[in-house]
């Protein structure tokens, strides 16, 4: 845990413990008058270097006068002639200084020569010429020269605000060019930047590698393809929305499966590539790729089906489901189908001794040195890895059943009691809890029966034959039955019993391993919620008692 001390804003007046101003004994009216005058003339009083030589003058006016009388160059006249705003004036000054132009050449400039933003970067540190504009302080000579103090103050206030704004814009531009965050800070205490949980997330999906990993996940991609390509009753002439389309592979499946229109939405750079892919494959008349957050876009019509591969590690990592639910509430027709329609989070006991050896005890002796300090955080962070089916020590327990047509975003923070009944045949040490998820697709979008068994794909099992038939010809599609038929369920598991997926499994190492026997019951509560510091990460708490009557053990983890 770290402690952050927030700095106090700097006060205009410093007050001692008795309430007296320790900096000034003058009246507040005098302070205010001095403040205006000081600010207006501050840049003019700074020492200033000539534009054409290294000679230093005590004020900006003296430097400008010297350049007029000795070099025949009037900066203010040149700025007026070229119609320069504050940024153009700054570019002109920096251009002259950087190029070390002679006065004659400076007078012949047209403005094109110094139009690049690189000339916003100061050549001379704290150059007062960049801040001083004698001709721009008033809207009219009458207001500033008026004998009415209130008119003069109002004029100065307006000009001060305008000039501060112009100068702040200049500083921000310099900050962008030089990548110096300090240049763009406002005067006084800086306001905290709004938290951004999305930029890195969307940027990460702009790269090729992550899409290659997902598409090459045979369990994932073939299951989606099977559902999208073998349910003509659902997809023929349907309007489909693909949330987080990535390369557009699911949209292509939907178009090939009979959809008449598909809206493919993605907020990352990959959307541009998806447009090319759609065109290359001849589906541009069916698939419309839309770049942006689905929460901020408008789809021109209601849709029959929403498809999305939104699942993350531990199912809810990345919080993409929130976007899918937003799309559901705004764009899905009544009676429309969510694909997938249901996901179950499965929880069990695990013998993760191999992971423990590779990730934790390995550090105890590294070439004769004890580096065990490196392993401490592994009991606080969930480990994303693959374990074998023989490591599962209990029947899995459903800690969360997400039925997508009904669930709300608020329900994604949850707690669930659990009871895990061991399936071991002899005394075995429990070193971890394991979490994975099962995913279900139905043609009607209705919930699956509680006794529905998830499809477990084994190593070397053929899963693509029905999707990509030999010779590229579509399979003959059966005419839908006119009578009542059993709901067709398409599903896959990310558990250890299946061949590994790119989601792997989520492992929670226990600090104090405990021994169980056959039929033992481990009861407790599983808590899961979005992280306070990044809404796309998860915070998990597991409360359990190794045996009835034992003290309650509480462990906290992050999934990141």
User: Which class do the helix and strand fractions yield?
Assistant: alpha+beta
Question: Based on the structure, what is the oligomeric state of the protein chains?
Answer: single chain
Uncertain regions: pLDDT < 50 for 5+ in a row?
1-37, 135-141, 180-188, 470-484
How is the biggest beta sheet arranged?
6 strands, antiparallel
What does this structure look like?
The protein has 560 residues and is α+β, with helices and mostly antiparallel strands. 28% of the residues lie in helices and 21% in strands. It contains 15 helices and 17 strands. Strands 8, 9, 10, 12, 13 and 14 form a six-stranded antiparallel β-sheet that branches. α12 links the parallel β3 and β4. It starts with 27 loop residues before the first helix and ends with a strand. The N terminus is likely disordered.
Top keywords for this entry?
560 residues, alpha+beta, 6-stranded antiparallel sheet, 5-stranded parallel sheet, 15 helices, 21% strand, elongated
Describe the structure concisely.
By secondary structure, this protein is α+β, with helices and mostly antiparallel strands.
Outline the fold blueprint.
Elements: H1 28-45, E1 48-49, E2 56-57, H2 60-71, H3 75-82, H4 86-99, H5 103-107, H6 141-145, H7 149-178, H8 199-204, H9 208-215, H10 218-229, H11 232-235, E3 239-243, H12 249-256, E4 261-266, H13 270-280, E5 287-291, E6 303-308, H14 321-331, E7 332-339, E8 342-350, H15 353-359, E9 383-385, E10 397-403, E11 414-421, E12 428-442, E13 489-493, E14 505-516, E15 521-530, E16 538-545, E17 553-559
Parallel strand pairs: 3-4, 3-6, 4-5, 6-7
Antiparallel strand pairs: 1-2, 8-10, 8-12, 9-14, 11-15, 12-13, 12-14, 15-16, 16-17
């Amino acid at each position: 845990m770290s402690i952050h001390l927030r700095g106090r804003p700097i006060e205009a007046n410093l007050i001692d413990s008795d309430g007296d101003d320790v900096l000034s004994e003058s009246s507040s009216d005098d302070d205010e008058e001095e403040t205006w005058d000081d600010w207006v003339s501050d840049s003019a009083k700074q020492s200033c270097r000539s534009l054409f030589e290294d000679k230093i003058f005590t004020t900006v006016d003296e430097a400008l006068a010297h350049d007029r009388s000795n070099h025949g160059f009037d900066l203010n006249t040149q700025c007026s002639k070229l119609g320069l705003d504050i940024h153009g004036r700054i570019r002109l000054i920096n251009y002259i200084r950087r190029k070390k132009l002679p006065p004659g050449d400076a007078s012949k400039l047209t403005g094109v020569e110094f139009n690049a933003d690189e000339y916003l970067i100061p050549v001379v540190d704290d150059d007062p010429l960049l801040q001083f504009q004698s001709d721009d302080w008033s809207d009219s000579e009458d207001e500033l020269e008026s004998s009415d103090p209130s008119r003069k103050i109002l004029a100065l206030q307006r000009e001060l605000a305008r000039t501060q704004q112009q100068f702040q814009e200049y500083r921000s531009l310099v900050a962008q060019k030089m990548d110096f965050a300090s240049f763009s800070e406002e005067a006084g205490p800086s306001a905290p930047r709004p938290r951004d949980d999305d930029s890195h997330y969307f940027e990460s999906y702009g790269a090729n590698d992550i899409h290659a990993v997902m598409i090459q996940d045979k369990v994932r991609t073939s299951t989606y393809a099977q559902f999208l390509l073998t349910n003509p009753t659902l997809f023929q002439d349907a309007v489909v929305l693909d949330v987080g389309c990535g390369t557009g592979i699911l949209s292509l499946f939907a178009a090939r499966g009979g959809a008449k229109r598909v809206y493919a939405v993605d907020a990352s750079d990959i959307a541009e590539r998806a447009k090319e892919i759609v065109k290359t494959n001849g589906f541009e008349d069916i698939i419309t790729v839309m770049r942006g957050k689905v929460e901020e876009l408008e789809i021109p019509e209601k849709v029959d089906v929403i498809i999305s591969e939104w699942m993350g590690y531990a199912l809810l990592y990345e919080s993409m489901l929130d976007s899918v639910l937003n799309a559901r509430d705004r764009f899905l027709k009544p009676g429309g189908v969510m694909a997938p329609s249901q996901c179950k989070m499965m929880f069990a006991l695990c013998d993760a001794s191999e992971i423990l050896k590779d990730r934790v005890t390995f550090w105890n002796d590294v070439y004769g040195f004890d580096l065990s300090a490196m392993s401490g955080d592994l009991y606080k962070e969930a480990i994303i890895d693959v374990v074998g089916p023989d490591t599962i020590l209990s029947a899995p327990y459903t800690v969360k059943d997400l039925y997508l047509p009904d669930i709300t975003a608020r329900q994604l923070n949850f707690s669930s009691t659990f009871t895990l009944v061991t399936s071991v045949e002899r005394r075995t040490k429990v070193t971890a809890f394991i979490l994975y998820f099962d995913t279900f697709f139905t043609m009607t979008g209705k919930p699956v029966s509680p006794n529905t068994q998830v499809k477990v794909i084994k190593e070397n099992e053929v899963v693509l034959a029905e999707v990509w038939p030999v010779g590229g010809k579509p399979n003959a599609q059966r005419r839908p039955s006119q009578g009542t038929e059993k709901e067709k369920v398409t599903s896959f598991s990310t558990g250890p019993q299946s061949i590994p997926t790119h989601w792997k499994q989520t492992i929670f190492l226990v600090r104090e391993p405990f021994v169980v026997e056959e039929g033992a019951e481990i009861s407790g509560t599983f808590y899961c919620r979005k992280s306070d510091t990044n809404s796309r990460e998860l915070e998990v708490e597991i409360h359990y008692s190794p045996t009835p009557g034992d003290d309650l053990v509480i462990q906290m983890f992050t999934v990141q």
